[in-house]
Design goal:
Elements lengths: L11 E4 H13 L2 E9 L2 E6 L10 E6 L2 E6 L16 H4 L3 E10 L2 E6 L6 E8 H15 L6 H7 L3 E5 L10 H4 L11 E6 L6 E6 L2 H8 L4 E2 L2 H16 L10 H6 L5 H7 L7 H5 L6 E7 L5 E8 L9 E2 L2 E2 L4 H20 L9 H4 L7 H13 L5
Parallel strand pairs: 2-8, 8-9, 9-10
Antiparallel strand pairs: 1-11, 1-12, 2-3, 4-5, 6-7, 6-14, 10-11, 13-14, 15-16
Length: 382
Amino acid sequence: MPEGHVPTAGEAIIDREGLQALLDALGARGFSVIGPRIRDEAIVYAPLRNVADLPEGWTDRQDGGRYRLERRGDRALFGYAVGPHSWKQFLFPPRQRLWQARRTEAGFDLLEEPPPSERWAFLGIRACELHALAIQDRVFLGGSHPDRSYAERRRDLFLVALQCGEPSGTCFCVSMETGPKASSGFDLALTELLGDGSHRFLVEVGSRAGEEILAAIPHRSAGEADRREAEAVLDSTASRMGRTLDTRGIRELLQDHPEHPRWEEVATRCLACANCTMVCPTCFCSTVEDHTALTGESAERTRLWDSCFSLDFSYLHGGSVRKEIRSRYRQWITHKLSTWFDQFGSSGCVGCGRCITWCPVGIDITEEVRAIRSSLLEPTHA
């Protein structure tokens, strides 16, 4: 795992060839590099080996319930925001066999799933996603019973962060204080620079492992002009957030108004499809399924992603606790923005905006909070 920021002689600069050298150096050290690629008309995270695999010259346009890829006017490799995938799919897979049992003459042998053989390097993980990863770490590694599968996948992870240069129409990381700049939690961090007619990347080192990788690839020391350009990229990103969320007193705002009429209003639009929880980089709910062969010779247990929007999620003997969509939406947003503080000491939202973009009817978490807050500030009339 990345250490805290490691002081160096200064940031470095690499060009496109240096970026390919970075991929080659990671591959030579046994890492499978995962990064952004275009697939199914979206930018997703998938294995890559060459700079040519990156979404060169593409960007995305996002709004409530809308996502479209468009061509840029330059050759940016990371000129997009975030797509439908989050990095949690690799550390907390959507479907995972936990164990299987096979009948023998002496009874049953329990065969636990072996740890993954791959060592991953994530290329292009943004500040909001680093914060999401830290939240998942607290969920799966905190307490007295850490999740062994998550720990095994997380242990040797190498993180190449991307200082965000392109927000979407649904981003609000500035409001959540999770971006656009990553200041820790990475091995290396890149800022893509396209000014002065050159294409280069400012590289920051965040760990000893990152320092070793940087030393193995062609680079030069960053100059003051490079640093100013990188700062300008981040300032521009922060000024172009598509959404804002007022977080003042939000914990109490949601906890103290469980019967607010807004819950009923949003229920008339919500499809309870669970898209928001599937694309969320911090949601961690799961269920298990047991399957036994008809012959009785084998059985297995599988863990799958689940959602509080599912009717069966809160099922107890006699029926579901949350039968109405109103109560399920309230549970999700109140947990995410309020009671998460009680469990994990932070908000469960990092402001990536995925839940807004990928909601089929464009329900906006920032607007729902704003509606509740504004209604409580309206003067009452006798």
